[in-house]
Amino acid sequence: MRVHARGRLLASVAATSALIGMLACPAAAQTAEPGAAEQTSTDEPAQDIIVTGIRASLAQAIDRKRSADQVVDVITADDIGKLPDDNIAESIQRVTGVQITRDEGEGRGVNIRGLTAQTTINGRVQVGANSRNFDFRNLAAEFFQTIEVFKSPLASQPEGALGGTVNLVTRKPLDGKPVVSIGVEGLYADYAEKLDPRVSFFASDQFADDTLGVALSGAYQRRHVRSDYFQALSGWRRDTLSVNTGFDFNPGDTAQNRDVIRPADLRYRTQDGERTRYGVDGTIQWRPSDRFEVRFDGTYTRFENVFRNAWFRTLSNNPGSFVPGSLVISDQGSLLGGVFTNQRVEIDGRYESEPLNLYTFGGNARWEAGRLTVTADANYAKSDFKLISQFLRFEGVQPATVDFRFTGEDVPPTLALTNANGSPYDLFSPALYVPNLAQDRVFDGASEEIAGRLDFDYRVESGILQSIKAGVRLTTRDDTFRVGQTANQTGNRANPAFYDQATGRRLTIADAPLNTFNAPYPWRLFEDEGGTFPRGWLIHRYPADDPDVGSTAYLDAFNIRDFGGLINSVPEQSDIKEDTQAAYVMADFSGDIGSLPFRANAGVRYVRTEITSRGLFNNNGVVTPVEGSNVDERWLPAANITFNLRQDLLLRIAAARVLQRPAQASLATGYNINLSSGVASLGNPQLDPFLAKQVDVSLEWYPTRETLFSFAAFYKDVENFTAARTFTGPIPGVTQLDGDTDFVITQPVNAGGGKIKGFEVGVQLPLTFLPEAVRGFGVIANYTYSDSSTTSGQPIGGLSKQSANLIGYFERGGFSTRVAYSWRSRFAETGEGGNQALPLNIFEYIAPAGYLDASISYDFSPNFSLVLDGVNLLRTKQVRFTGIEERLRDLSITDRRISFGGRIRF
Description:
With 906 residues, this protein is mainly β. The protein has a single domain, classed as Beta Barrel (Maltoporin, Chain A), CATH 2.40.170. Helix content is 6%, strand content 56%. The protein contains five helices and 46 strands. It has a 22-stranded antiparallel beta barrel. The relative contact order is 0.14. Residues 65-165 form the TonB-dependent receptor plug domain. Residues 435-873 form the TonB-dependent receptor-like beta-barrel domain. This is TonB-dependent receptor. InterPro entries: Beta-barrel_TonB (IPR000531), Beta-barrel_TonB_sf (IPR036942), Plug_dom (IPR012910), Plug_dom_sf (IPR037066), TonB-dep_rcpt-like (IPR039426), TonB_rcpt_bac (IPR010104).
């Protein structure tokens, strides 16, 4: 049996085992003691009910939600390192109304009801590297006990997002018993065919008569990743052909009825690499009395991406060189096939390294003096990355005839390459390829924020007024971004790496030094998928064990910095400083309206933000500093009220005005230029922040301590949405690597507003009504519908109209299993290389997709357990299309992941 076949078998066994566990284990567990007592009456609160495992986590989460002063959903871990998923973003996606983005199959970004979420750790705002969007790949799930998803704000909470706030809560050493926990797992990726380690620990102890607590945790994980791709990397674009196509996508063009929307290129590639994540988290907590407490905590994590790409591409030039009668044009004007002559063929091997670092440190002090509580908090947060991208591209010495067809399925288009005489095009012969481009690019980005806040809470307890709260918060944030690129287009005959100095002959891959880096591509592309296209080719491959890969060895081997190399040819840099002053006042209320009990809060937050943006502009080789600034002041009211319709039935109503600042890339001055794809972006520091008026209504029924039925409706009226204005034209002093001077340039502008309205339905239900012999099952299900519209006509990026989660679990006698399926409908998102069809108001979308995960665990004792997890068991494909599904832009498939291990606690 082949290795990859064993990987698929292992994944299938894991998925089947989880499902069998759901169905068969009740019979096996009939003689086991129940894992929890049941609550069957809602007349009296059942404070003495004890539950464990999955049901304990759900009960704790429901209790937190029920007692909250705002619309919130909560995820809790009943034990160390036992959040529902290894990746925090993947845990959060189970929450009603939450949608996530993925990178190589792993959760990366989070939005709430289609809009960006702000991320905090212990209430402190975290920064993404040169981004508002926090990268959840950078955090180990073992560090956190609770995840809170706030959908309606309090006036006392930091502003910063339209969607809501995700707060990650670490464990506090004085809130639990001393403990040491160690977990060890092996993670198998079936597509990469690799087994990797995952290790974590947590230790907590108390001293000085239990007034001083210390906690320390650490985590290490390595993961091999393999993904296969088809891409129209440069996007789909309008072209005018020399035949009557029956379509005219540009009425202002004089060439009537000759237009098509066609792929600008066809690229097939594979990517394999390693992801390493490690970090530490620590807390010191001192509580000499109930009235005074000091806490210091900090987190450092590092997430390292190292990837090696191999690809070939064609159909990138001479769109008019087609064989008459061969074109396949759909009813929507899409060029879905044809035979094109005189086409370039390029092959490439690429090395990319991207370490991401996260540092966050803070101190908090709370002091109670009678009715007054004073809290002071200060923190420092920093996130940075450095992306190195190096490649050596080759092109065939002979052009090819390209015959392609898009099939309409989620498989790559069929592709056949032939020579002019009709013989097969050889993708493996080193003597048939000459160097085309050698390039080294380095991207540096960093964001850091220093914040301090002071809060006062005075308990009034007079009538319905319970307390008055006020506070101030000062922050300063700095975002920097740099691009350095060194390129050599291999056209200088004086370079001995590309030309024989004695004869003047241009070297091929068969010649030294070019031959030292190249080998046939070792795998079959999309090996388990259908379709007819090249499955392998010659690549420029970086040795995995070369310690100099990613450093000067590559540059020196091909004299990239000499012989006409373009060193920092288009210097790009951005420096954005953001200073914010905020203050709030808020009151808490409690009482009765007639016979109806209620609790409420209302307040207003004042925010002043000053932004200074600096960058560079390149005009005919003369680099000039440019600068822009903006000052914005806003008042943000917020109110929440909760009615106890019955002891087990709550009605919440919330209203607020919320604010989100534009993305750093949107505020940058100067250009961000991709010389290879011909795409550029231009920032706009004069952008106004996004603002939204929002209303939430939530009805929550708690028939038992572990059961919840909820329905929520929401409405957001958004101002100042950012829309992309795209145009084609030159950038003074800048030329693409292929000599073209026209770029597709995108610039953000404020373009009116939009509205989002929808509803959520959720249920958490242990099936305690089942007969004793099969008791232990439970179900969690939720569905979210979000309808949106914008005055600009552009879709809201990242917003799916529909999303749903269905989770079934079984728990009894120390055995537990869980199967979770998450699905979302299509959402707008532009891929790598930009969207060349955007000037025609044609947008790009990620196709609907669902992900299946499962887990099985068994507790041999309170101190030892084993677990088997499966992630992405369906090996779900990610599909991106331009406008309509027949215009396939990206197709990728990545690993199914299986992990097995144990945890010991003492």
